[in-house]
Amino acid sequence: MISDKDYVFVERGENETSYVKLVAENEWNGTIFQYGNLSVRVDEESDMAHLDFSYTIVESPLNEDMLNVDEGFKNYIGEVLQYIITSALDNGEYKLGLKDSDNDPTKSD
Questions:
Q1: Phi then psi dihedrals of residue 95, to 5 deg
Q2: Cα–Cα distance measured from residue 26 to residue 14, given in angstroms and rounded to the nearest whole number
Q3: Could you tell me the CA-to-CA distances from 32 to 3, 6, 22 in Å, in that order?
Q4: What pLDDT, on the 0 to 100 scale, is given for residue 37?
Q5: Residue 9 CB neighbour total at 10 angstroms
Q6: Which one, of 41, 33, 47, lies nearest residue 81 by Cα?
Q7: Cα 7 from Cα 80, distance rounded (Å)
Q8: Which of 15, 52, 54, 83 lies at a 20 to 30 A Cα distance from 40?
Q9: What per-residue confidence (pLDDT) applies to 15?
């Protein structure tokens, strides 16, 4: 079961981009990556939602090519993503839209 002890958010350099670093005691410990595109598919028949996402390995003690074909790794970071999203929704710590967006949904054109 995933918990907040499985990962930490880290920043590298002077940019404001956050990455995820895996810190759990498993074979992927020390791997830093960034989630990319995210989408949710709903299977109407099973009434189940599926997360589809891309990711980029930033740094790892493991071979990047091996990680990219490791289904266990992909499943694990998918579970981490699900935990991150669920925790953010539960705690009200989420944001939709761009950081510097002028879009105000309460105003009409």
A1: -145, 135
A2: 29
A3: 17, 12, 6
A4: 93
A5: 9
A6: 33
A7: 8
A8: 15
A9: 75
Nearest in space to 12 (alpha carbons), one of 59, 62, 73, 68: 59
* Residue with token string 């993503």: 81
With vertex at residue 82, the alpha carbon angle to CA 78 and CA 87, rounded to the nearest 5 degrees, is 150
Pairing of strands 32-43, 18-22: antiparallel
Burial group, residue 7, by CB count within 10 angstroms (0-12, 13-18, 19+):
buried
Nearest to 35 by CA among 1, 82, 69, 3: 82
Secondary structure of the chain: what % helix, strand, coil (to 5)?
25, 30, 45
10-residue mean pLDDT profile of the chain (109 residues): values are 94 83 97 94 88 94 96 97 91 68 49
Domain spans in the chain, listed from the N-terminal domain onward: 7-91
pLDDT of 50 reads 84
Amino acid 83: pLDDT:
95
